[in-house]
Amino acid sequence: MPYKDTMKMKRLLLIIFLSIAAMLSTSFAQDNTKVGLPDGAIARLGKGGINLMRFSPDGTRLVVGTDVAVWVYDVLDGKETALFTGHGGQVNALAFSPDGKFLASGGSANPIIQLWDLEIGSKLATLKLAERHDSVTALAFSDDGTTLMSLDTFGDIIRWDIVTGSKLSDTKNVETYKAVALSQNGGTLATGDKRGPQIHLWNTTTGRRRVTLNGHAGFFKGGPDEDEKQTDIRGLAFTQDGKTLASGSEDKTVILWNTKNGAERATLRGHEEWVTAVVFSVDGKIVASGDTDGVIKVWDVSTGNERATLRGHKNTINALAFAPKGSLPYAGCLASGSADGTIRFWNPSNGQELATFTAGHTEWVKAVAFAEDGITLASAAHNGTVDVWSLVTRREFTTLTAGHSDLAELATFSTDGRFFVTRGYNGPIAFDPSGWGSRYSFKGRGSMQLLEVVTDEELPGPWQQVADTISAFKFSPDGKVLASRGPREDVRVWDIKTGTELSRINVGSPFPRQLMFSPDSTLLAVYGIHGIPLVWDIDAGHQFPAFTDERAWSLAFSPDDTTLALGHRNSITLWNVTKTGMQAHSVISDNHRQFSDILIFSPDGKTLLDSKWSEARIQLWDVDTGRSLGTLSGHTEPIETLVFSHDGKTLASGSEDGTVLLWDWDEISAKRGPGNNR
Q1: What's the pLDDT score for residue 446?
Q2: d(Cα 481, Cα 493) in Å, to the nearest integer?
Q3: Which domain holds residue 586?
């Protein structure tokens, strides 16, 4: 059977499978895709990157704080019993009351603490911080459960009366920090210094520093062409009695400390990559540590000897938690949450994996595409893996891993979702558990892969030979060619089917980095923050005359190919596209505009959608009048991609928060579109 016919058959079988899966999956599992959605959104795909995990005191619940919400899992059956989305931001701090009835949660970009009643699954109270305190990084209940202590990014320690919600005390002496941990009763605070590998212990009542711990190495060697870099403390954890502290660092070691006198008890060596998470068992006899290679090690605290090495995760370990002893099937187990999107349960005694408890907690959506059949959507994660979702059930049904790497720096789909191209690197990558962003250190040369999404098979071609030199790539809307931008002054255009190089365009400047095709695939633009935009007619093989001397951070062609929009630092300029070049049309001014690399027209060309670089919202503009049509908010971290479905009815936004939001564009247009009041 010819290759083309084979692909059609595989696609047909996939559609049949999808339809069956859609019908079956509606009969079980709670649907959380619609909980806590912003106005205009119809579903949330994905659960957000994992920041931390906590078991309830009786071990019956596992609570996960992610970049978008608090997820509550029933440990017995794995069901998602609740999704708390009352923060409007990341969840970076969690604490159970001693009796396990209440849960406190807080996080980044929202100056509130939520108190939840777990018995009835609803919010009990909201504790409001001062507006400047926009991030809660640690929480702890008192032993009697009557007070709650919180720490924010400004180093302020506040004690709250749980009954009245009032502040009992406010201490403001703690310095800024990189990593943080509170003892069980909130009496001692440990912070990893932002300026080096030191760790400070604080008395939370007085706000005074008790002791500084020095023991971790100060620098690590970066990639093959990089200088030494300062190491960071990535993980901190106390034993339940608060007498011992464990610290994990980018120097690849775990150190156990006596918290009373600051003495170093033991240095645990064995990790080959950065240590990103540490946790003690409930009895304090063992400590577990996870690293950026997805490896977990279990150590004996009394001897410092390694007891087991746990392997199974495919990316960085973001969080670890021990279940308390008891009669449950997973009593005393170790739970691990990874940037690969999974939470796994382990037997810490022998290293046996007990279960892949749940999935869907992927970090950082890099690209999104709708399939032409209208029933599937594909999203690409930070590591180059592709998740395929049913738009009928809004559930993930398969993950494709052929493009896997530690970090996919570049990733994009063809317009129909059939092809996926990624350029990735291997090396440690650590995500910030109390904000957004990551730190990484590449090893070796990058690799580029062009994949057929349905089959998860790689399509070989000459692009593989220049993978390490490519700084941008883009599929033509008709899906026939792939354009790539190298570090030198050239853009190459390849035929995807044959691998033939169709043309090589001399850009004339080494600085512009991004590429964009016109909807009819005849024009190709190159642009970037360090150079002016240039446009070529691919069919005719000539460059349009230079039409602006302003640098462009973003670019978009209108659906009818008649308008080109350029996003600058403080404005968006619109140009009429003619056969001979560009003619100035109009300007949309925004004095508060920041750097942006996302600009897209609505399907009817009447609205321009713009996402600012440092904000997690979508700005809407009336193309004809330049009037603001308001914003769409719902993500908690910067947006990476905006894509419309082929019928123009759904907008998908993919974000660094690890989720895809689906928006009802007809509803949004009716309320906010041109000619309507907001």
Answers
A1: 79
A2: 7
A3: 550-678
pLDDT, tens digit, 9 for 90 and up, residues 44-91: 999 999 999 999 999 999 999 999 999 999 999 889 888 887 766 789
Query: Is residue 7 included in any domain, yes or no?
Result: no
Rounded to an integer, the average pLDDT of 218-223 is 73
Whether 162 shows a pLDDT value over 80: the answer reads yes
The strand pairing partners of 490, in sequence order, are: 506
Q: Domain boundary at 268, 285, 302, which? A: 285
103 and 252 belong to one structural domain? yes
Which distant-in-sequence residues (6+ apart) come within 8 Å of 72 by Cβ? 61, 62, 63, 64, 80, 81, 82, 83, 84, 103, 118, 121
Residues 294 and 350 both lie in one domain: yes
> Are 237 and 319 members of one domain?
no
The 10s digit of each residue's pLDDT in 36-53 is: 899 999 999 999 999 999
Here the tokens at position 318 are 């973001």
Cα 108 to the center of its chain, rounded Å: 14
Whether residues 234 and 348 share a domain: the answer is no
| Residue 472 covered by a domain | no
Domain boundary residue among 250, 285, 320? 285
> Is the pLDDT higher at 271 or at 193?
271
Number of Cβ within a 10 Å radius of residue 212: 11
Q: How far is CA 176 from CA 92, 190, 261, 444, 467, in A?
A: 16, 12, 23, 34, 40
Tokens of 211: 């002791």
Give the model confidence (pLDDT) of 612-621 as tens digits: 877 789 999 9
293 and 147 in one domain?
A: no
The answer to whether residue 646 sits within a structural domain is: yes
Q: Which residues contact 641 (CB under 8 A, 6 or more apart)?
A: 365, 366, 367, 368, 598, 652, 653, 654
Q: For residue 397, is pLDDT > 70? A: yes
Rounded Cα distance, 105 and 148, in Å: 11
- Give the number of domains in the chain: 3
Q: Indicate if 136 and 162 belong to the same structural domain.
A: yes
129-140 confidence digits (pLDDT tens):
876 666 899 999
